[in-house]
Automatic annotation (TrEMBL):
PANTHER family: BETA-FRUCTOFURANOSIDASE, INSOLUBLE ISOENZYME CWINV1-RELATED. This is Acid beta-fructofuranosidase. Residues 1-21 form the signal peptide. InterPro entries: ConA-like_dom_sf, Fructan_Metab_Enzymes, Glyco_hydro_32, Glyco_hydro_32_AS, Glyco_hydro_32_C, Glyco_hydro_32_N, Glyco_hydro_beta-prop_sf. Gene3D superfamilies: Exo-inulinase, domain 1 (2.60.120.560), Glycosyl hydrolase domain, family 43 (2.115.10.20). It comes from Phaseolus vulgaris (Kidney bean). The keyword Metal-binding does not apply. GO terms for molecular function: beta-fructofuranosidase activity.
Length: 562
């Protein structure tokens, strides 16, 4: 343990960048570029293909005792293009085996690309894929594919419907280039299937609704399920029920007074959601009070184009999301890959009914090894507490804080976007209550570090908890995106502890605040804090002491991925 005055943090965070640090950065960049076997940023337990480009997760499902994950994949390069549906299978959502691409351009309706879509289990447990194809005219149309052999649990071969496409944009609304990403379909009590397709009209984003009795002949409804003005194109929509009470999931076709419905849309580089009800008679979505527009997000960092499915084995709703790189394209090409999938998350409605909760699936804990448990203790202002005995580049850390002097919280006069607030008040800016949290991927002299921390404010006489993931000092390579992310966490620090769980995986920092009420995912590429040179700390740069009530950390074993 090291105890230092707050000025130590302030000074070191600000001035340690000098010619020596620049020399180290240049030397390491040359080393990494010249040695293709050195992959300090490749993940150990997050899903990614052996090489090349990946983006949206597509059609996750459970079939034949196996989990199937499809994904947008370029088999030829580490940049977007030549998109096919990659395919991997798993018994546990942790270890994955790659298979040949499931869908690739071969018909006039998808000859220029096989874009995102979803799977639906038809009666008799028969999977079907609806996906967006780019036809020979460059228009976006919706296509159908089914397994060639249902007795094959790997579903290695898929057969496209000869009469594809099943859905095409009508010429009067001029949306041929904004008509994509069909959802998992749901079956209404009238025996008709429904599916949503993301779209927009001018600047109004929407989820177009289609109905079918046979899953082949689809008719567009007169009105969208829901739309919002000035939101732009809705990509990768998702629509599913969640229980009002409890953490279990339900099948996508379930409706009734015991469930709420979640409508999610990917837009403006973020995944937004609303909670509300689904009026099946009118085929419309009615947001709950407070959800009149898209404000809430799955993740306040780098997380996009997510797709959920109902896991009928564990009776849960599971979410996959694409985590893009923060490095420049030239660096992606050098390392030979780009993009990963976030840790699968179980998802349910919080007891308050006001938000979703997300938590890494329990299976990921099977990778935990060499536990380190520190006793409860006071973390004084300006103190760094090193967490030893853990592989700092490949870890799972859970820490909880307790604050006793909330009367000293800094007053926030005006409501501010949390991302902006975290940018203005990073880990080197002290206040009475915060910042306190974790320093991950920290180099020996703290030339590099990524900080994930809480800060507490008073706003309109109420306590307001801010969670930040500050990448501004994460790397000496300034070509990277060093954006700082932030989210407010709906917790009351007077009555409950401030909990933080952070999954650390070579170039990923995936954080869950308030037991999953706020999630922030970041990508970082340190040049010094790599491999065995990285260090891990708990820190408090506020002027008031905070109590660590729990600190448990584990090294994570490498998963068998592709």
């Amino acid at each position: 343990m090291m105890t230092m005055p707050t000025i130590w943090l302030l000074t070191l965070f600000s001035v340690i960048y000098g010619s020596l640090a620049t020399h180290h950065f240049s030397r390491n960049l040359q080393t990494l570029s010249s040695d293709s076997n050195d992959q300090p940023y490749r993940t150990a337990y997050h899903f990614q293909p052996p090489k090349n480009w990946i983006n949206d997760p597509n059609g996750p499902m459970r079939y034949g005792g196996l989990y199937h994950l499809f994904y947008q994949y370029n088999p030829q390069a580490a940049v977007w293009g030549n998109i096919v549906w990659g395919h991997s299978v798993s018994k546990d959502l942790v270890n994955w085996t790659t298979l040949d691409p499931a869908i690739f351009p071969s018909q006039p309706s998808d000859i220029k690309g096989c874009w995102s879509g979803s799977t639906t289990l038809l009666p008799g447990n028969k999977p079907a894929i609806l996906y967006t194809g780019i036809d020979s005219m460059g228009h976006q149309v919706q296509n159908l594919a089914k397994p060639k052999n249902l007795s094959d649990p790997f579903l290695k071969e898929w057969v496209k419907f000869p009469q594809n496409p099943l859905m095409a944009a009508t010429s009067d609304n001029n949306i041929e280039s904004d008509f994509r990403d069909p959802t998992t379909a749901w079956l209404g009590q009238d025996g008709h299937w429904r599916v949503l397709v993301g779209s927009k009209r001018r600047t109004r984003g929407m989820a177009l609704l289609y109905r079918s009795k046979d899953f082949v002949n689809w008719v567009q409804a007169k009105h969208p399920l829901y739309s919002t003005k000035d939101s732009g194109m809705w990509e990768c929509p998702d629509f599913f029920p969640v229980l009002k009470n409890g953490q279990l999931g339900v099948d996508t076709s379930v409706n009734g007074d015991h469930v709420r419905h979640v409508l999610k849309a990917s837009m403006k580089s973020q995944d937004y959601y609303m909670i509300g009800s689904y009026n099946a008679a009118k085929d419309v979505f009615l947001p709950d009070k407070g959800f009149d527009e898209f404000v809430s997000r799955y993740d306040y960092g780098k997380y996009y184009a997510s797709k959920s499915f109902f896991d009928d084995g564990k009776k849960r709703r599971v979410l996959f999301g694409w985590v893009d790189e923060s490095s420049i394209e030239a660096d992606d090409i050098k390392k030979g890959w780009s993009g990963i999938i976030g840790i699968p998350r179980a998802m349910w409605v919080h007891d308050s009914g006001k938000q979703l909760v997300q938590w890494p699936v329990v299976e990921i804990e099977e990778l935990r090894t060499n536990p380190v448990n520190l006793p409860p203790q006071v973390l004084k202002g300006g103190q760094l507490l090193q967490i030893n005995g853990v592989t700092a580049t490949q870890a799972d850390v859970e820490i909880s804080f307790e604050v006793s002097k909330l009367i000293e919280a800094e007053v926030l006069d005006n409501w501010t976007d949390p991302k902006i607030l975290c940018s203005q008040k990073g880990s080197s800016i002290k206040s009475e209550l915060g910042p306190f949290g974790l320093l991950v991927f920290a180099s020996e002299g703290l030339q590099e570090f990524t900080s994930v921390f809480f800060r507490i404010f008073k706003y309109q006489n109420k306590n307001l908890v801010l969670l930040c993931s500050d990448q501004s000092r994460s790397s000496l390579n300034k070509n990277n995106d060093l954006t700082t992310y932030g989210a407010f966490v709906d917790v009351e620090p007077l009555h409950e502890k401030l909990s933080l769980r952070t999954l650390i995986d070579h170039s990923v920092v995936e954080s869950f605040g308030g037991e999953g009420r706020a999630c922030i995912t970041a990508r970082v590429y340190p040049t010094l804090a790599i491999n065995d040179k990285a260090q891990l700390y708990a820190f408090n740069n506020g002027t008031s002491d905070v109590n660590i009530t729990r600190l448990s950390a584990w090294s994570m074993k490498k998963a068998q991925i592709n």
